[in-house]
């Protein structure tokens, strides 16, 4: 290790692999030769700016941590930049993988170094014993700014609701109505689910009615009004559709905003909504533990369905939305019933797409593999020829020896026609990109949504696209997104989504734990 330079707020160190004769090195005022468990490590005590460093780094990685002053309690954000040079024996296509694995091990939660000495020591030990493909590392430590309080840890919407009281707002009531759509939902159901006052829920519902966003229905229920969609028919049974108008492609969405986005791409739309009602027995009381024929049964809405039919190019499409979102048995049963009923109603459907938003798998060192906010992922088999486009993890276990075991099911279509089309689309987009047809269609759909929806479908600001990595129970570090070596390419696609291909994973247990999610994603080469 050699110190290269130091300023008032930065320090630069270099660690390189050099073949030397042990006898030529003796500890003195300028050099420290380690022994014992650290044999093989040599530390130059004197800074040197004359170290040969003519070639640019082959890979760069930056992350940020917060340092705490024990005396003042002030938090200082520090940037730590790692620049990699690799040995000639390491193939180019393995460099990003080696750098990412090195970084993950460096900041692993089990033994994350909490001070400078531990941080530098761990880098040297990892290079010495586990990563012979790394020839040289340059570390730049730079203090950024100070603050009195540690920044708030980002939480997912699902995580923030666990064990916490959710604030009752008009926006939250609308979110629950949209989540239940096409099922109408009562104020009583909304209030009971979150332990809210029913009168306040009704007040918010009245305000939403006055804005023309929701409407009241029978049995005290409310549902979403679909804006700017004039051809909506309420039916008891789906009408017979002539053979030439039967859809061959079905699109299933889970969120209301997802269906609105898909519908914007459909031409000549017709929407059918089918409501069902069920009788609900009155609650049993202590004085009457058995129901009698004289007791009044209340009526409420059951599972409802919405189908939007139309054209996308030369194809006939049907789009639907799952009526309930969640992880309960009722929600999963409703999702299964909706899909079964869809395929039973439209029996000429050959292809089914599940379209919606999801979390991408970040790559800390490879720009090509890093999925960013606003990008598009299409399910596809991995490059290692595993026959799976979708994998569901049923259980994840951390064994006593630290090894991870995943119980999962893999799914793959009988033919890969859609995957081949996706590959062709990706190849075309990488050649034409801003001139490719899918970008034009995307822009057209966004313009339509700007005038037809209360939702904001514009691309999020790049400032909001933060990449975090867990280093403990509640501790995070911010990692800079990897950059492309082709600056012209980056400039060309700036502000546009990129297309990625790879397996898609799910599973509540594995998705909620950062360590398990990363390990399982790597095992399955997921996006």
TrEMBL record:
GO terms for biological process: nucleoside metabolic process. Residues 161-224 form the Winged helix-turn-helix domain. SUPFAM superfamilies: Purine and uridine phosphorylases, Winged helix' DNA-binding domain. This is Winged helix-turn-helix domain-containing protein. It holds the Pfam family HTH_69. GO terms for molecular function: catalytic activity. InterPro entries: HTH_69 (IPR055121), Nucleoside_phosphorylase_sf (IPR035994), WH_DNA-bd_sf (IPR036390).
């Amino acid at each position: 290790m050699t110190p290269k330079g130091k300023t008032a707020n930065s320090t630069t160190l270099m660690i390189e692999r050099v073949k030397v004769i042990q006898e030529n090195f003796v500890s003195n005022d300028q050099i420290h030769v380690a022994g014992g468990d650290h044999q093989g490590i040599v530390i130059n005590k004197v800074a040197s700016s004359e170290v040969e460093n003519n070639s640019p780094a082959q890979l760069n990685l930056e992350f940020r941590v917060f340092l705490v002053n024990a005396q003042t309690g002030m938090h200082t954000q520090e940037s730590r930049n790692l620049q990699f040079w690799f040995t000639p024996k390491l193939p180019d296509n393995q460099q990003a993988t080696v750098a990412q694995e090195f970084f993950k091990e460096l900041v692993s939660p089990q033994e994350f170094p909490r001070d400078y000495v531990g941080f530098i020591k761990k880098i040297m030990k990892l290079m010495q014993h586990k990563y012979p493909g790394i020839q040289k590392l340059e570390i730049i430590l730079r203090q950024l700014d100070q603050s009195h309080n540690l920044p708030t840890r980002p939480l997912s919407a699902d995580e923030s609701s666990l064990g916490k009281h959710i604030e009752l707002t008009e926006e939250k009531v609308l979110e629950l109505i949209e989540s239940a759509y096409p099922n109408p939902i009562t104020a009583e159901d909304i209030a009971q689910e979150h332990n809210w006052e029913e009168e306040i829920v009704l007040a918010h519902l009245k305000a939403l009615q006055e804005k023309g966003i929701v409407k009241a229905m029978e049995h005290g229920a409310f549902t979403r009004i679909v804006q700017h969609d004039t051809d909506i028919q309420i039916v008891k049974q789906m009408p017979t559709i002539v053979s030439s108008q039967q859809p061959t492609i079905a699109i299933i969405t889970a969120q209301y905003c997802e269906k609105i986005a898909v519908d914007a791409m459909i031409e000549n739309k017709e929407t059918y909504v089918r409501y069902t009602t069920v009788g609900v027995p009155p609650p049993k009381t202590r004085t009457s533990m058995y129901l009698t024929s004289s007791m009044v049964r209340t009526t409420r809405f059951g599972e409802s369905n919405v189908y939007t039919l139309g054209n996308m190019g030369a194809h006939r499409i049907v789009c639907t939305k799952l009526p309930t979102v969640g992880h309960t048995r009722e929600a999963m049963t409703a999702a299964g019933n909706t899909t079964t009923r869809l395929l039973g109603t439209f029996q000429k459907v050959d292809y089914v797409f599940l379209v919606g938003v999801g979390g991408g798998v970040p790559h800390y060192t490879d720009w090509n593999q890093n999925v960013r906010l606003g990008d598009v992922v299409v399910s596809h088999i991995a490059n290692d020829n595993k026959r799976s486009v979708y994998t569901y993890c049923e259980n994840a276990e951390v064994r006593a020896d630290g090894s991870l075991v995943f119980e999962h099911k893999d799914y793959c279509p009988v033919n890969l026609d859609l995957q081949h089309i996706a590959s062709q689309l990706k190849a075309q987009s990488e050649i034409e990109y801003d001139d490719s047809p899918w970008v034009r269609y995307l822009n057209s759909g966004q313009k339509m949504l700007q005038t037809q929806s209360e939702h904001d479908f514009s691309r999020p600001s790049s400032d909001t696209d933060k990449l975090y990595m867990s280093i403990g129970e509640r501790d995070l570090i911010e990692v800079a997104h990897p950059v492309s070596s082709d600056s012209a390419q980056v400039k060309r696609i700036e502000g546009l989504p990129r297309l990625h291909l790879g397996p898609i994973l799910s599973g509540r247990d594995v998705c909620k734990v950062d360590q398990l999610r990363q390990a399982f994603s790597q095992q399955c080469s997921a996006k």
